[in-house]
From TrEMBL:
CC per GO annotation: plasma membrane
GO biological process, one term: enterobacterial common antigen biosynthetic process
Assigned keywords, A-Z: Acyltransferase, Cell membrane, Membrane, Transferase, Transmembrane, Transmembrane helix
Gene Ontology molecular function: O-acetyltransferase activity
Family to which this protein belongs: Belongs to the acyltransferase 3 family.
Originating species: Amycolatopsis panacis
TM stretches of this protein: 30-50, 62-80, 92-114, 134-162, 174-194, 206-227, 239-257, 277-297, 309-330, 342-362
Cited InterPro entries: Acyl_transf_3_dom
Compartment(s) where it occurs, according to its Swiss-Prot or TrEMBL record: Cell membrane
Protein name: Acyltransferase
Membrane topology reported for the UniProt record: Multi-pass membrane protein
Domain Acyltransferase: 27-362
Amino acid sequence: MTTTETPHVHAEEPASAPAAKARHLRQLDLYRVITFALVIFIHVLVSTTYPDNVLSAAIEAPLHFARAAFFALTTFVLLFQYRSRPLEARRFWRHRIPLVAVPYLVWSVLYWGYGMLTSPDPVGPLSDQLWTLLIQIATGSAWYHLYFLLVTLQVYLVFPLLVKLVEVIRRRPWTVLAVSALVQVAVMSFLSYPPGSVDYTTVSRFFATLLPYQFYSMLGAVAAVHLETMHGWLREHRGWVLAGLVAGLAALETGYLMSVGHGVWPEMAADAYRPYLLPWVVVAIAALYMTGSRWAAGRQRAGRFISWAVDRSFAVFLCHPLALALLGPLIEFVGNRYGSPWTTIVVYPATVLLTFAIVLVLRRLPWSKALTGRAPVRAPAPVP
């Protein structure tokens, strides 16, 4: 879900002093693949269940850590590369921003066009639709997942400032995290329990800004600056991480069920901005990194597929909602006959397979970079 290149160190070995050119952290490959697999699953789950389904929303709630994990990953990867070398802001922006901005604009137009073609209602004058498109581009709302790219662009814009704070992060990591966490709790509380005078339209505008995700980015920044310490601690304290997962999940589900018990709609009680998600999210991100580290230190099962999937992860993120939309007749067919959870069980692998098929086509096109952020894949030469 991000085009950021990944630095390279062997997973379970102590990381040495950073070289002039950052190395590849193999553990982040599995981290990335698991995360975008969960993002697809959340979207399938929401599309194949009703918003008042208490059980499906209870499953959905903890899986929201996936979006936080990607914001942490994006900042982690960037800052790991620049934690010990200077950054020239304009050069950085020229290189990074087009890799996300161009696909963002292209897919905003594509989804806008798809929405008009499939709308059951009259679409109105073209001038009105073009104005709608401009608003959607400005707000990340051309489709339900595109806000992520808009927030990623904001991360890129503020990243040079974050590099200037590396020494502060190095000397006072816990202070930095504590301040960021306080801001995060305040923002999440506002988004989840807004004052009566603030309508939902105003609240929803914050979803496409960096503000609700800044703590996750800062978490990635601190982890990048203190990678060696963080990596070693997680390796030595796996039991604490597992205990934290259980405790965090229990707190999350308790908060969710209490909210539902007080009359909150299950879909709202399970959204990603509820403060009771925060402890779980932090521990889940740590556990995901730890899982990737153990995998990278071992036999790296399915390693070739993981590498292949990582190279296409940004494209998968961009087009999987299109695949899911195209599977609407399958959702209706299975749902009407078998209901939940069979609809989710059938539609999830179908969505993954169709997404990969679309990505394979897109990566072969001459304009692949505009569609996927990656250069076209060359077809293998025929064997003579």
